[in-house]
Amino acid sequence: ACKTAASFPEMGESFDSSLAPAAHSSIQPFSPVTEPFIAASTSGFLVVFKPAGMNSVSLGKSNAPDKDLVSWLGSKFPDHAESIRLQGQTPLRESGLDRNREALSASRFVRELGMLSRLDRETSGLVLFATSLESFGRALEAQKAGRIGKLYRLRVGQLETERRGDPLPGSLPPRIEPQALLDFVSALSTANGAMSVAGRANGRVGTFINFDITSRFRSFGARGARVACIQPEVSGKTHKKPITAIHTTHFSIRGISGSFGKAPSEGSSLKPAIIELDASIVSGFRHQIRAHMAWAGFPIIGDAVYGGYPASRLFLESYGVELESEGLSYYYNLY
Description:
The chain has 335 residues and is of the alpha+beta class.
């Protein structure tokens, strides 16, 4: 994660292009939000909340107007969109990019209104936008250097290690064993263990239990609809060559937040526990957190693609952004 020295100003302060933040009450994890809203701003950057079920960018003619975050921002704040378009016509040499990259970044800057990262349609949470081409170029350089961090909250449901999800198809090896997570789940598998865990801070562990999952990725399945994880040290031929970049997700187990479903066997009083975790990534890949948890045998609740317990939504939400670049250092957490 990035070091953070200053937070974004309070909502309404230093808001570029006179964008006024939407009024909203204090957001709790996985609140049933149906409309986007401006969460915060500062000179050069904007933080927007995307609800679950909305695309980050337009999918073309099949996408209804205002049903993606970029279209929503452009329609709600046309003056802001026009400012972005005008800036894109005169790329800034001081943006720190070479000419070719500058031209490409200017095109993307205009097309996506300065969006710096995307979220899956099913994932809710914060998306960072640049409001000037200069800040966009600086952020791209920070992103390349691993100085933009994204924080997520997620929930998985599991009772015991023997009842973990299926191995992740196409992955090498098919499953990994994050020992810290397995030990925590093992403690939940017995009544005494569950009471011991739940008894600490009302279901919150006193000291967060941390573990990392690291892999390369490759597209897998029909039309590459999902991804498979390849352990960095694993060599061997695959049908599709994995990308060379290595991606790490840092997880922290926050504790348990209740239970759901039926007991696994007759006469048992135990129900599957909902385990709540935080995750942080720097250089993200499509479905990274979802695939990493499924690879460990603990798919996220509501993740139909990777075998999660059925639910009304995907329990994955981006709640924090951190950015550090030369001359600036910002962060914003939704809760």
